[in-house]
């Protein structure tokens, strides 16, 4: 079986034949991989920059890939799926020790002993086929098809949005007409995660601004017009960035979000999503005073539960018809497995989401 293999801590990825003997149990499904998305986490592993990446216990390599879409080929007797059904696998698997993991909320694991497909301790989905426990599989609506490869990144956005709404119950946050129509959200970054945040906030009534340190490319400009949000180039100044109730950072760079904090309204939320390494920033007492005096909450969010995947799948189905062609436009490049390393290491200018096509 062909797979994209890495050795965590070393640079590079290889397409090679591997032997992974996996029999199908009564609660499991054998799956044929159709598409796998490429993201910044994959890039960090292949460049050797992510220290937490590790192979499964007893293995000396890691099969990459966590944004999977697959087709059921063999179904265990206790599984409520049929051969031919499309599914998206959940990435993180719990530690089986803490209460959160025991109730399916391994995205809030308390021990840190979880595993994640294609990232830490579990072989990923960049391979021709795999066997998985049915409880970690999310069925794809019939009309969504191959666009469901976007479900994994969207699931993380759904979780973060749900956290935001929960935290903001600390005060009356609805507008005087009971909606969120008077609230404003600013999203830092215009990659797939930034686009999904913009769509989720927009669908929940917020006025949305997406910012980047450049003008939008042709695809981003089209998406902004179809979805109905504003795009601001912050390299030209911050005057066009509105005062916001929520600032979402998808970049991971303090230099991107700290200058925007003066645009935050009282009782607002800074939602941190992006992760990178290397950049340093100073936290001053004036900044702490601002957070205290303005009742600012800071939320860090990572990963998602099966419920978040299911909610995201519903949104994708709605967006497929509501935002004509936008989801297709977000998939800017489709590559073959043998082109994976170049696609990961050499992200093209203007690219939003690259996916690997394993099978049709």
From TrEMBL:
Q: Which GO terms describe its molecular function?
A: D-glucose binding; glucose 1-dehydrogenase (NAD+) activity; glucose 1-dehydrogenase (NADP+) activity; NAD+ binding; NADP+ binding; zinc ion binding
Looking at the record, the residues that make up the Alcohol dehydrogenase-like N-terminal domain are 25-141
- Report if keyword Oxidoreductase is assigned: yes
Q: Which InterPro entries match?
A: ADH-like_N, Glc_1-DH_arc, Glu_dehyd_C, GroES-like_sf, NAD(P)-bd_dom_sf, Zn_alcohol_dh
Pfam families linked: ADH_N, Glu_dehyd_C
The family this protein is said to belong to: Belongs to the zinc-containing alcohol dehydrogenase family. Glucose 1-dehydrogenase subfamily.
What name appears for this protein in its UniProt entry?
Answer: Glucose 1-dehydrogenase
What organism, scientifically named, is this protein from? Sulfuracidifex tepidarius
């Amino acid at each position: 079986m062909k797979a994209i293999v890495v050795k965590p801590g070393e640079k590079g990825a290889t397409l090679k034949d591997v032997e992974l003997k996996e029999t199908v149990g009564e609660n499991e499904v054998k799956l044929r991989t159709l598409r796998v998305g490429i993201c910044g986490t994959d890039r960090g592993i292949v460049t050797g920059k992510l220290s937490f990446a590790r192979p499964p216990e007893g293995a000396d390599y890691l099969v990459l890939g966590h944004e999977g879409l697959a087709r059921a080929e063999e179904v265990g007797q206790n599984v409520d799926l049929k051969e031919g059904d499309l599914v998206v696998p959940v990435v993180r698997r719990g530690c089986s020790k803490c209460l959160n993991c025991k109730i399916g909320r391994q995205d809030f694991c308390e021990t840190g002993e979880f595993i994640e497909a294609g990232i830490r301790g579990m072989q990923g989905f960049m391979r021709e086929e795999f066997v998985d426990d049915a409880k970690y599989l999310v069925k794809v609506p019939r009309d969504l098809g191959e666009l469901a490869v976007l479900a994994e990144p969207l699931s993380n956005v759904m979780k973060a949005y749900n956290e935001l709404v929960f935290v903001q119950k600390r005060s009356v946050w609805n507008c005087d007409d009971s909606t969120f129509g008077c609230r404003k959200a600013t999203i830092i970054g215009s990659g797939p995660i930034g686009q999904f945040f913009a769509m989720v906030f927009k669908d929940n009534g917020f006025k949305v601004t997406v910012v980047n340190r450049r003008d939008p490319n042709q695809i981003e400009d089209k998406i902004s017009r179809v979805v109905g949000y504003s795009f601001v180039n912050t390299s030209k100044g911050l005057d066009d960035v509105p005062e916001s109730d929520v600032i979402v950072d998808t970049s991971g760079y303090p230099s991107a979000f700290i200058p925007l904090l003066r645009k935050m309204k009282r009782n607002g939320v800074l939602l941190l999503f992006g992760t990178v390494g290397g950049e340093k920033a100073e936290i001053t007492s004036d900044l702490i005073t601002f957070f205290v005096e303005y009742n600012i909450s800071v939320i860090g969010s990572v990963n998602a539960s099966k419920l978040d995947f299911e909610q995201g799948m519903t949104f994708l189905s709605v967006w497929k018809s509501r935002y004509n062609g936008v989801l297709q436009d977000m998939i800017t490049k489709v590559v073959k497995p043998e082109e994976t390393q170049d696609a990961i290491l050499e992200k093209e200018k203007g690219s939003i989401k690259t996916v690997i096509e394993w099978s049709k």
